[in-house]
Amino acid sequence: MRRQITRLFERHDPIMRRALTPAEARVWIRPTNGDHSLYRPEEMMKDKSDFTHKLPLKASAVLVPIVERGDQLSVMLTKRSSLLKSHSGQVSFPGGRCDDDDLHAMATALREAKEEINLPQSHVEVIGAMEDYETVTGYSVSPVVGFVNPNFNLILQQSEVEDVFEVPLDFILNEKNHTIESIHWRGKKRYYYVFPHEQYKIWGATAAMLVRFARLVNEYEQCAA
């Protein structure tokens, strides 16, 4: 599976163009994928004004860490601190807003992973990035994908991260686990992806990016079969 995913991103993100795009270029391009497009049925898409922000967006990046333990692969996720003012207690990838001195999305993702969970850059093999994802809060998130050597000293940045856990890759790739729920938000019905994980509720932008990743892998395998 490692080889298939690596080959997939060699095609999906040639020369790691997405991973190496600087923030100042990304904030002026509205992503196709996002809360405004994935969470609402087509008949609800006539008015996007409540779900889109004026450009420029706020650039951020996350690391989608695929952990390798022999032939077993899993995805590492974090639970945000319950003390945070925004998105407290939610499940997310390691990552955050781009700093001025970050050269590109990959630099942001790796820096944030080091700060949040003490994951050394030397333990990450970046293979590319998926399409940027626009959140309802006005962020353009670049999901940078990499294989992770788990032999490092896990240290949580307590002010931001409450817990770290892993989800088997097979669970994420199984489309039966890509469920959809809805809530009323700002007077309108909002749809969002949910993974029915036994430990934590994986939902929102994180779940949507996992769904996108799963679809890329599954479509590649079908074409290669």
What would your notes on this structure say?
The protein has 225 residues and is of the alpha+beta class. It has a single domain, classed as Nucleoside Triphosphate Pyrophosphohydrolase (Alpha-Beta Complex), CATH 3.90.79.10. The protein is built from six helices and twelve strands. The strands form two sheets. Strands 1, 2, 3, 4, 5, 6, 7, 8 and 9 form a nine-stranded mixed β-sheet that branches. Strands 10-11-12 form a three-stranded antiparallel β-sheet. A hairpin with a 2-residue loop joins strand 10 (179-185) and strand 11. The chain is globular and about 50 Å long. The two termini are 13 Å apart. The model is unreliable at 41-45 (pLDDT under 50).
